[in-house]
Amino acid sequence: MKLWRKAGARLDAGIERYTVGKDHRLDLELLPFDLQASTSALNKYCEATGVALGGLCVSRNIRYG
What gap in Å lies between CA 34 and CA 20, rounded to an integer? Predict the structure, then answer.
């Protein structure tokens, strides 16, 4: 399933291979860094506002992998 595909629209397989390529592999490699950045941003928000967000603010000592 592709979120961007419109019902009934056809996409050329060659174009799809060119535009999508190895994105799924890169996404997996970048995931730990995305998580770290999101966690850091959330913690900064919590510290700046004093809002705990129902326990969503998390420890800075997260293990990835």
Answer: 20
What are 18-33's pLDDT values in tens digits?
877 788 888 889 999 9
Paired tokens of 10: 């056809």
Q: Exposed (0-12), middle (13-18) or buried (19+): which is 62, by Cβ within 10 Å?
A: exposed
Tokens representing residue 28 in the block: 């997996």
Q: Which tens digit of pLDDT belongs to each residue from 30-60?
A: 999 998 898 888 888 877 877 766 666 655 5
Q: Which of 25, 65, 5, 47 is nearest to 57 (CA)?
A: 47
Long-range contacts of 29-36 (CB under 8 A, 24+ apart): 32/64, 32/65, 35/62, 35/64, 36/62, 36/64
The residue type found at 17 is R
